[in-house]
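Researcher: Last one for today. Full complex below.
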Amino acid sequence: MRNDGKKRNSGCPVTYGLDTFGDRWSLLVIRELLLRGKKTYGDFLAADEGISTNILADRLKHLEAEGIIVKSRDPDNRRSFTYSLTQKGRDLAPIILEIIIWSGMHDKRPHARRNVLKKINKDREGFEASLRSPQD
Amino acid sequence: MRNDGKKRNSGCPVTYGLDTFGDRWSLLVIRELLLRGKKTYGDFLAADEGISTNILADRLKHLEAEGIIVKSRDPDNRRSFTYSLTQKGRDLAPIILEIIIWSGMHDKRPHARRNVLKKINKDREGFEASLRSPQD
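Model: Here's the assembly. Have a good evening.
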Protein backbone atom coordinates (compact mmCIF):
# COMPACT_ATOMS: atom_id res chain seq x y z
CA MET A 1 0.00 0.00 0.00
CA ARG A 2 1.27 3.40 -0.95
CA ASN A 3 1.42 6.31 1.38
CA ASP A 4 1.74 8.94 -1.31
CA GLY A 5 5.43 9.50 -0.95
CA LYS A 6 5.33 10.41 2.71
CA LYS A 7 7.14 8.05 5.02
CA ARG A 8 5.55 7.46 8.38
CA ASN A 9 7.91 8.66 11.00
CA SER A 10 7.84 5.93 13.59
CA GLY A 11 11.46 4.98 12.80
CA CYS A 12 10.38 1.35 12.68
CA PRO A 13 12.29 -0.67 10.06
CA VAL A 14 9.23 -2.77 9.23
CA THR A 15 7.28 0.39 8.49
CA TYR A 16 10.18 1.80 6.47
CA GLY A 17 10.28 -1.30 4.32
CA LEU A 18 6.56 -1.35 3.75
CA ASP A 19 6.44 2.35 2.92
CA THR A 20 9.22 1.85 0.38
CA PHE A 21 8.21 -1.30 -1.48
CA GLY A 22 5.35 -2.81 0.45
CA ASP A 23 2.35 -2.87 -1.74
CA ARG A 24 1.56 -5.86 -3.85
CA TRP A 25 1.84 -4.11 -7.18
CA SER A 26 5.26 -2.71 -6.36
CA LEU A 27 6.45 -6.13 -5.32
CA LEU A 28 5.10 -7.67 -8.50
CA VAL A 29 7.15 -5.24 -10.58
CA ILE A 30 10.16 -6.19 -8.46
CA ARG A 31 9.39 -9.88 -9.02
CA GLU A 32 9.23 -9.37 -12.80
CA LEU A 33 12.62 -7.64 -12.76
CA LEU A 34 14.32 -9.90 -10.24
CA LEU A 35 13.06 -13.35 -11.19
CA ARG A 36 11.73 -13.14 -14.72
CA GLY A 37 14.15 -10.90 -16.56
CA LYS A 38 11.38 -8.51 -17.60
CA LYS A 39 12.32 -4.90 -18.11
CA THR A 40 9.85 -2.85 -20.12
CA TYR A 41 6.55 -1.20 -19.34
CA GLY A 42 4.91 -3.58 -21.78
CA ASP A 43 6.48 -6.59 -20.05
CA PHE A 44 5.06 -5.54 -16.68
CA LEU A 45 1.66 -4.85 -18.18
CA ALA A 46 1.61 -8.37 -19.62
CA ALA A 47 2.19 -10.05 -16.23
CA ASP A 48 -0.41 -12.66 -15.27
CA GLU A 49 -1.92 -10.56 -12.50
CA GLY A 50 -3.20 -7.92 -14.90
CA ILE A 51 -1.89 -4.66 -13.47
CA SER A 52 -3.69 -1.60 -14.83
CA THR A 53 -1.75 1.08 -16.71
CA ASN A 54 -2.42 3.84 -14.18
CA ILE A 55 -1.32 1.72 -11.21
CA LEU A 56 1.76 0.52 -13.10
CA ALA A 57 2.81 4.06 -14.05
CA ASP A 58 2.32 5.20 -10.46
CA ARG A 59 4.32 2.31 -8.98
CA LEU A 60 7.19 2.70 -11.45
CA LYS A 61 7.43 6.38 -10.52
CA HIS A 62 7.33 5.52 -6.83
CA LEU A 63 9.98 2.78 -7.09
CA GLU A 64 12.22 5.11 -9.06
CA ALA A 65 11.81 7.88 -6.47
CA GLU A 66 12.71 5.38 -3.73
CA GLY A 67 15.88 4.34 -5.54
CA ILE A 68 14.71 0.75 -6.06
CA ILE A 69 14.71 0.89 -9.87
CA VAL A 70 16.28 3.06 -12.56
CA LYS A 71 14.81 3.96 -15.92
CA SER A 72 17.04 4.25 -18.95
CA ARG A 73 16.73 4.52 -22.71
CA ASP A 74 16.69 1.20 -24.47
CA PRO A 75 19.99 1.06 -26.43
CA ASP A 76 18.27 -1.01 -29.12
CA ASN A 77 15.37 1.37 -29.52
CA ARG A 78 16.06 4.94 -28.52
CA ARG A 79 12.36 5.72 -28.38
CA SER A 80 11.64 3.32 -25.56
CA PHE A 81 12.79 2.79 -21.99
CA THR A 82 13.90 -0.13 -19.91
CA TYR A 83 13.89 -0.51 -16.16
CA SER A 84 16.40 -2.25 -13.96
CA LEU A 85 16.90 -2.83 -10.26
CA THR A 86 19.46 -0.82 -8.32
CA GLN A 87 21.56 -2.52 -5.65
CA LYS A 88 18.95 -1.36 -3.11
CA GLY A 89 16.36 -3.12 -5.24
CA ARG A 90 18.39 -6.31 -5.71
CA ASP A 91 18.92 -6.39 -1.94
CA LEU A 92 15.20 -7.18 -1.68
CA ALA A 93 15.98 -10.69 -2.97
CA PRO A 94 16.06 -12.36 0.49
CA ILE A 95 12.63 -10.91 1.32
CA ILE A 96 11.17 -12.24 -1.94
CA LEU A 97 12.80 -15.63 -1.34
CA GLU A 98 11.35 -15.82 2.18
CA ILE A 99 7.90 -15.00 0.79
CA ILE A 100 8.28 -17.83 -1.73
CA ILE A 101 9.38 -20.25 1.01
CA TRP A 102 6.46 -19.23 3.22
CA SER A 103 3.99 -19.67 0.38
CA GLY A 104 5.53 -23.05 -0.36
CA MET A 105 4.63 -24.10 3.18
CA HIS A 106 1.15 -22.62 3.29
CA ASP A 107 -0.31 -22.31 -0.21
CA LYS A 108 -2.28 -25.51 -0.60
CA ARG A 109 -3.89 -24.65 -3.92
CA PRO A 110 -3.19 -27.32 -6.54
CA HIS A 111 -2.01 -24.84 -9.16
CA ALA A 112 0.58 -23.24 -6.83
CA ARG A 113 3.82 -22.84 -8.76
CA ARG A 114 6.98 -24.27 -7.27
CA ASN A 115 9.68 -23.70 -9.86
CA VAL A 116 11.46 -20.92 -7.95
CA LEU A 117 11.03 -22.79 -4.67
CA LYS A 118 12.89 -25.71 -6.22
CA LYS A 119 15.80 -23.45 -7.10
CA ILE A 120 15.85 -22.10 -3.55
CA ASN A 121 15.77 -25.58 -2.04
CA LYS A 122 18.57 -26.72 -4.31
CA ASP A 123 21.02 -23.90 -3.53
CA ARG A 124 19.57 -20.97 -1.67
CA GLU A 125 22.86 -19.23 -1.06
CA GLY A 126 24.02 -19.38 -4.66
CA PHE A 127 20.63 -18.45 -6.06
CA GLU A 128 20.32 -15.48 -3.72
CA ALA A 129 23.84 -14.31 -4.54
CA SER A 130 23.09 -14.49 -8.27
CA LEU A 131 19.98 -12.34 -7.80
CA ARG A 132 21.80 -9.76 -5.71
CA SER A 133 24.79 -9.31 -7.94
CA PRO A 134 24.64 -6.68 -10.71
CA GLN A 135 23.32 -8.07 -14.01
CA ASP A 136 25.55 -7.92 -17.10
CA MET B 1 -2.90 -4.01 -0.46
CA ARG B 2 -6.07 -6.00 -0.11
CA ASN B 3 -7.81 -7.77 -2.88
CA ASP B 4 -11.13 -8.16 -1.14
CA GLY B 5 -10.74 -11.78 -0.24
CA LYS B 6 -10.20 -13.01 -3.75
CA LYS B 7 -6.83 -14.50 -4.49
CA ARG B 8 -5.37 -13.81 -7.89
CA ASN B 9 -5.01 -17.08 -9.66
CA SER B 10 -1.58 -16.83 -11.23
CA GLY B 11 -0.27 -19.56 -8.88
CA CYS B 12 2.76 -17.38 -8.18
CA PRO B 13 4.02 -17.74 -4.60
CA VAL B 14 4.97 -14.06 -4.40
CA THR B 15 1.41 -13.12 -5.34
CA TYR B 16 0.00 -15.64 -2.88
CA GLY B 17 2.03 -14.13 -0.07
CA LEU B 18 1.09 -10.59 -0.94
CA ASP B 19 -2.58 -11.44 -1.26
CA THR B 20 -2.50 -13.10 2.15
CA PHE B 21 -0.56 -10.66 4.32
CA GLY B 22 0.91 -8.09 1.95
CA ASP B 23 -0.45 -4.74 2.81
CA ARG B 24 1.31 -2.48 5.20
CA TRP B 25 -1.46 -2.39 7.77
CA SER B 26 -1.70 -6.17 7.92
CA LEU B 27 2.03 -6.44 8.39
CA LEU B 28 1.96 -3.82 11.13
CA VAL B 29 -0.58 -5.89 13.06
CA ILE B 30 1.69 -8.90 12.55
CA ARG B 31 4.66 -6.85 13.79
CA GLU B 32 2.78 -5.82 16.95
CA LEU B 33 1.93 -9.47 17.68
CA LEU B 34 5.27 -10.97 16.71
CA LEU B 35 7.77 -8.46 18.04
CA ARG B 36 5.98 -6.35 20.61
CA GLY B 37 3.78 -8.75 22.54
CA LYS B 38 0.66 -6.71 21.76
CA LYS B 39 -2.60 -8.60 21.54
CA THR B 40 -5.71 -6.47 21.86
CA TYR B 41 -7.62 -4.23 19.49
CA GLY B 42 -6.71 -1.29 21.72
CA ASP B 43 -3.02 -2.22 21.59
CA PHE B 44 -3.01 -2.20 17.78
CA LEU B 45 -4.91 1.06 17.66
CA ALA B 46 -2.26 2.63 19.89
CA ALA B 47 0.64 1.71 17.56
CA ASP B 48 2.80 4.64 16.47
CA GLU B 49 1.62 4.56 12.89
CA GLY B 50 -1.93 5.54 13.80
CA ILE B 51 -4.08 2.90 12.13
CA SER B 52 -7.72 3.91 11.83
CA THR B 53 -10.46 1.82 13.47
CA ASN B 54 -12.13 0.84 10.22
CA ILE B 55 -8.90 -0.31 8.56
CA LEU B 56 -7.86 -2.17 11.71
CA ALA B 57 -11.20 -4.00 11.96
CA ASP B 58 -10.99 -4.92 8.27
CA ARG B 59 -7.42 -6.21 8.49
CA LEU B 60 -8.09 -8.25 11.64
CA LYS B 61 -11.01 -9.91 9.91
CA HIS B 62 -8.89 -10.56 6.82
CA LEU B 63 -5.95 -12.01 8.79
CA GLU B 64 -8.34 -14.24 10.73
CA ALA B 65 -9.96 -15.47 7.51
CA GLU B 66 -6.48 -16.22 6.11
CA GLY B 67 -5.57 -18.27 9.17
CA ILE B 68 -2.75 -15.92 10.21
CA ILE B 69 -4.29 -14.90 13.55
CA VAL B 70 -6.92 -16.28 15.90
CA LYS B 71 -9.28 -14.31 18.08
CA SER B 72 -10.20 -15.59 21.54
CA ARG B 73 -11.91 -14.36 24.67
CA ASP B 74 -9.56 -12.75 27.13
CA PRO B 75 -9.46 -15.16 30.11
CA ASP B 76 -8.95 -12.19 32.46
CA ASN B 77 -11.86 -10.23 31.07
CA ARG B 78 -14.56 -12.29 29.45
CA ARG B 79 -16.02 -9.23 27.74
CA SER B 80 -12.95 -8.56 25.64
CA PHE B 81 -10.90 -10.42 23.05
CA THR B 82 -7.25 -11.06 22.41
CA TYR B 83 -5.52 -11.96 19.17
CA SER B 84 -2.62 -14.29 18.65
CA LEU B 85 -0.61 -15.59 15.71
CA THR B 86 -1.18 -19.09 14.38
CA GLN B 87 1.79 -21.18 13.27
CA LYS B 88 1.15 -19.89 9.74
CA GLY B 89 1.40 -16.37 11.17
CA ARG B 90 4.54 -17.07 13.19
CA ASP B 91 6.11 -18.57 10.08
CA LEU B 92 6.15 -15.02 8.68
CA ALA B 93 9.02 -14.25 11.09
CA PRO B 94 11.83 -14.74 8.52
CA ILE B 95 10.11 -12.33 6.11
CA ILE B 96 9.79 -9.67 8.83
CA LEU B 97 13.43 -10.21 9.84
CA GLU B 98 14.61 -9.82 6.23
CA ILE B 99 12.62 -6.57 5.95
CA ILE B 100 14.33 -5.32 9.12
CA ILE B 101 17.77 -6.29 7.78
CA TRP B 102 17.05 -4.58 4.44
CA SER B 103 15.89 -1.41 6.18
CA GLY B 104 18.99 -1.51 8.35
CA MET B 105 21.06 -1.34 5.16
CA HIS B 106 19.03 1.28 3.35
CA ASP B 107 17.15 3.49 5.83
CA LYS B 108 19.49 6.41 6.34
CA ARG B 109 17.14 8.52 8.45
CA PRO B 110 18.74 9.44 11.76
CA HIS B 111 15.77 8.31 13.84
CA ALA B 112 15.71 4.82 12.29
CA ARG B 113 15.30 2.29 15.09
CA ARG B 114 17.82 -0.51 15.33
CA ASN B 115 16.91 -2.41 18.47
CA VAL B 116 15.48 -5.47 16.68
CA LEU B 117 18.31 -5.39 14.12
CA LYS B 118 20.76 -5.69 17.01
CA LYS B 119 18.99 -8.81 18.24
CA ILE B 120 19.10 -10.28 14.73
CA ASN B 121 22.78 -9.50 14.33
CA LYS B 122 23.56 -11.03 17.70
CA ASP B 123 21.81 -14.37 17.13
CA ARG B 124 19.55 -14.54 14.13
CA GLU B 125 18.88 -18.24 14.33
CA GLY B 126 17.94 -18.23 18.00
CA PHE B 127 15.87 -15.07 17.71
CA GLU B 128 13.99 -16.40 14.69
CA ALA B 129 13.36 -19.74 16.42
CA SER B 130 11.97 -17.97 19.48
CA LEU B 131 9.57 -15.97 17.32
CA ARG B 132 8.38 -19.04 15.42
CA SER B 133 7.78 -21.29 18.41
CA PRO B 134 4.32 -21.23 20.03
CA GLN B 135 4.07 -18.69 22.87
CA ASP B 136 3.20 -19.97 26.40
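Chain B has one domain: 13-132. Chain B touches chain A through 50 residues (CB under 8 Å).
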